[in-house]
Amino acid sequence: MDDLDGQRILVVGATGMVAGPVVRHLAQHNEVWGAARFKSRRARAALEDAGVRTAVLDLAEPDFSPLPAEVDYVINLAVSHAPSFSDALASNAENLGLLMAHYRDARAFLHCSSTGVYQANGAHPMREDDPLGDNHRAMLTTYSISKIAAEVVARLSSRLYGLPTIIARLNVPYGDCVAWPSMHLECILAGQPIQLIPGEPSVYSPIHSDDIVRQIPLLLAAASVPATTVNWAGPDVVSVQDWCAYLGGLVGKEPVIEYTDAALPSVAVDVARMEELIGPARVRWQDGMRRMVAASHPEIDLVPAP
Asked: Is residue 59 part of a domain?
């Protein structure tokens, strides 16, 4: 399944940085419903202008009545960063179960998890069967634990309802939108420090939004009962130090790195299972980040590529 056409698709978390390109692409040939809290009228109007049908949904207190009664596919890209464990577990895990129960007759369910569920292990490329842990506690207190809980709920719900499900552990997403590398770019331009853990380089497997959009139908086609869990990441392992140096070189400014134990640990991943299921991501990190800079700052004359 290279793409989706003529399907009714619900995307939850439609205003998030990952979901934006996804819903716009899918809306070209499908009936797409975008559900979110929609605190910004402008964000909602922008999606509707792109042909997306919008509905207000807050997974902290879910009311599914504004949503369509039936859909072919559900793509859950929503996440709560609530500082309270009870709130984060309710939003990210318990209410995911309610959503899956509501759409138990869908053809497939894609739950976007995070590689932030892995126990930190330096530069070791994380495999899907590696130990899980409280990876993001230094910056996001409830994130890793509630994302692990959500995976458990997704697996259980898949079995209870016979709902084909895929759990995709997303690494660092980026593209022509606000994301972690683009935040680093803004720090470089402003001369502000970028905080990283001391010791070894901070390595990740960033994935461009073009690959995310392209692989959504492939992930849905790989959904199963019991649920399939897979890393979702780009083709390169690269350190934050290296991509910041590259971004700084493009704009002619030196990054300022500040080392602290309060930063996130490395999370690079093994993509062998992903490539077996859906094929590799294609956008190399230098190409994607150069495009990111050009899109976000067209006024800057970038240093020519070597």
From this structure: yes
